[in-house]
Amino acid sequence: MNADEKKKVQKIFTEYLEKHGHRKTTERFAILDEVYSTEDHFDVDSLYTLIKKKKHHVSRATVYNTIELLLNSELIMKHQFGKNLARFEKSFAYKQHDHMICEDCEHIFEFCDPRIQQIQSTVGNLLHFSITSHSLNLFGKCNELAQKGTCQYKN
Amino acid sequence: MNADEKKKVQKIFTEYLEKHGHRKTTERFAILDEVYSTEDHFDVDSLYTLIKKKKHHVSRATVYNTIELLLNSELIMKHQFGKNLARFEKSFAYKQHDHMICEDCEHIFEFCDPRIQQIQSTVGNLLHFSITSHSLNLFGKCNELAQKGTCQYKN
DNA sequence: GTTTGTGCAAATTTTTTGCATTACA
DNA sequence: TGTAATGCAAAAAATTTGCACAAAC
Questions:
Q1: Residues from chain A contacting residue B119 (CB–CB below 8 Å)
Q2: How confident is the model at residue A57 (pLDDT cuts 50, 70, 90)?
Q3: Position B146 confidence tier, pLDDT thresholds 50, 70, 90
Q4: How far apart, in whole angstroms, are the C-alpha atoms of residue A79 and residue A99?
Q5: What percent of chain B has pLDDT over 70?
Q6: What contacts B139, CB < 8 A, 6 or more positions away?
Q7: Is B61 (CB) below 7 Å from strand D?
Q8: Is pTM, for the whole model, over 0.85?
Q9: Protein residue closest to D23, using CA and C1'
Q10: B112 to chain A nearest CA, in Å?
């Protein structure tokens, strides 16, 4: 997408790799590039397919390996949206948000509500639990469906 | 646990099976029994192991099959707590609650905060999304660890 | 030139499916 | 007795691992 953003995340990833003594391979940067080329949430296999289609040959094992590095460098976030399939999203210039998942078209919408932070600190204090993160997912039917009876996102 | 509760859930399951033309097999009731004998959240494999240890011989396929029926009869709930492993809990006489997961000992704590309902309706209205359910998970370190440096739940 | 990282394939883990046999209704 | 459910084993799906070769440093 944004060339400027891509340069920034490449720099972050480079620094991360150098700091941790990892090699800067073309595969790793091809994967980073593909991750930051999509606006959507993705899973490992669809990312693998996208990369294979468009550019460098990369194996699934390398995608899994690199996903791990991208998680550690905080360039992506991992989610579980009810299915036994890990989903990811890029997280540079990330604004805290949660997800609303349409059970019909599977499209993922993002939202943000400050009350979640309040719940987090209330509950953390109450139970002496030091909370590092949260995940809030709302499930239902999206407005596309409710309003039009059909859905632009479906399949 | 509670013999009275067990009778009630057996009745519910019996009615569900009859209503949907499913057979009342010993395996299905053995699985229901085991589910309601634990206070904890469980995954399919640990449930399978428990049943195999204690009673009737039941195959994994049957456990998966029965879990599906128990979900449909609303006698259990399904969760995804960040791992690629479905977790379940019994849900008869269920009080709405969310979960706090210790990243260290993996123990699951339950809590309830009414503000989550408010978020749900605010966001639903705002985005014309009809919300049927939510899942809120808080991740962090439990008080056992924070206060004592060690944890009763660990392993 | 070392070593780490990659690709491939094989192994693991979690879940699903096909089919012969069992047992509920 | 007829058919749905079970057990088993094999298939799928998602992920991890081992090892020989390739390529960073």
A1: 113, 115-116, 136
A2: confident
A3: low
A4: 10
A5: 91
A6: A131, A132, A133, A134, A135, B82, B100, B101, B103
A7: yes
A8: yes
A9: A25
A10: 9
* Chain B residues within an 8 Å CB radius of A119: 113, 115-116, 136
Q: Is any atom of strand D within 7 angstroms of residue B57's beta carbon?
A: yes
Nucleotide nearest to B27 (CA to C1'): D6
d(CA A61, CA B22): 43
- Strands annotated E in A1-155: 42-43, 76-80, 86-90, 98-102, 108-111, 130-141
Average pLDDT, chain A: 89
| Residue of B63, B74, B137 lying closest to B106 (CA atoms) | B137
Angstroms from A7 CA to nearest CA on chain B: 31
Tokens 């392993």 correspond to B155
Those nucleotides of strand C lying less than 7 Å from any protein Cβ are 4-9, 13-18, 23-25
Domains of chain A with CATH codes: 3-90 (1.10.10.10), 98-148 (3.30.1490.190)
The string of pLDDT tens digits covering residues B59-106 is 999 999 999 999 999 999 999 998 889 999 999 878 888 999 988 888
Torsion region of B19: left, alpha or beta (phi above 0 gives left; psi -120 to 50 gives alpha): alpha
Contacts of B138 in chain A (CB under 8 A): 120, 123-124, 129, 131, 133-134
CA B7 to chain A, closest CA, distance in angstroms equals 31
